[in-house]
Amino acid sequence: MPKIVIALGGNALQSKNSEPTAEAQLAVVRKTCEYIAEISASGYELAIVHGNGPQVGRIMLAGETARDVVPAMPFDVCGAMSQGYIGYHIQQALRYALAKWNKNIPVVSIVTQMVVERDDPAFANPTKPIGGFYTREEAEELTASKGYVMKEDAGRGYRRVIASPLPRKIVEIDQVRQLWDKTIVITCGGGGVPVVENMDGTLEGVEAVIDKDYAAELLAEQMDTDALMILTEVEMVSIHWGKPNQQNLRHMSLAEAARYVQEGHFAPGSMLPKVQACMNFVRSNPGKKAIITSLDHAVDALKGTTGTVITFA
Ligand SMILES: Nc1ncnc2c1ncn2[C@@H]1O[C@H](COP(=O)(O)OP(=O)(O)O)[C@@H](O)[C@H]1O
Ligand SMILES: NC(=O)OP(=O)(O)O
Fold this sequence. Notes:
Blueprint: E1 3-8, H1 22-41, E2 45-50, H2 53-65, H3 75-99, E3 107-109, E4 113-115, E5 128-134, H4 136-146, E6 150-152, E7 158-162, E8 169-170, H5 173-180, E9 184-186, E10 193-197, E11 203-205, H6 212-222, E12 227-232, E13 237-239, E14 247-249, E15 251-253, H7 254-262, H8 271-284, E16 289-294, H9 298-303, E17 308-311
Parallel strand pairs: 1-2, 1-12, 2-9, 3-9, 4-10, 12-16, 15-17
Antiparallel strand pairs: 4-8, 5-7, 6-7, 10-11, 13-14, 16-17
Bound molecules: adenosine-5'-diphosphate and phosphoric acid mono(formamide)ester.
Phosphoric acid mono(formamide)ester is lined by residues 9-11, 51-54, 190-191, 209, 211-212.
């Protein structure tokens, strides 16, 4: 059976038309799980990685806002919380969606730790957008009142940014391997809870949010999957994105992708890590493919009728 890692975008899991409530997210997750169940039923072995940018930012904000009443939780704990509730939504929705195909495969989330390097340069240069979107004035006010670093995010408004070191080692990879054959595993949620390894071998959480696109790529490499699929809000990656001459791409070779990256077509913190994760995957696995598309085009993209496919040549 072909194996695939499917990465679900944190923003894509939020409803665009309503408040960012748990109920609104569950509705999007339910719909998404219908597509994932179809992929599973069509004969793929799969694992799911999800983002957590909006979710972890809001958990953090809630804690900071309630600081006078209860102590705020650190970032790594908020990351673990986001893995818990997003994983729970996916477990519940996917189990139901699979049953419609008469597939009773267990769906299990693993609270996953991801080792990062203590001296990763990303700690000195926050780039990962989290939480909601703000106007420039609101962003300036948040910087003044809470000390947040705020940056514009792909033309969609201002968001808080925090450090996003590269994922180096999936701590629970052996457990993912043990479960893989008979289970759909949800792992590396939010890129994994970022931890550093101490000299004595203990792990310690750090203040960061790992990019789930890079984490999904690492998982795909470690599990030797046939494909990596990154699902987000757009059906295809574009060049000249958002401009009158926008051109959607059905295919990119590694060399073409590298040129587009060089030319600055992909926004940092949003589309750039997705493209770079796909490039890393096909560079290490010539002959395999990576796909970027939207949640609702996942099935068609696997059939080859839409989405952006990245291959080595
Ligand atoms: N070149 C591009 N082509 C397509 N979308 C782009 C491009 N550059 C930036 N984007 C934006 O990046 C978004 C995907 O990033 P993001 O929302 O951060 O992902 P996620 O769904 O993983 O949270 C798209 O929905 C789009 O708004
Ligand atoms: N952690 C992470 O990459 O989240 P998003 O998918 O929300 O960017």
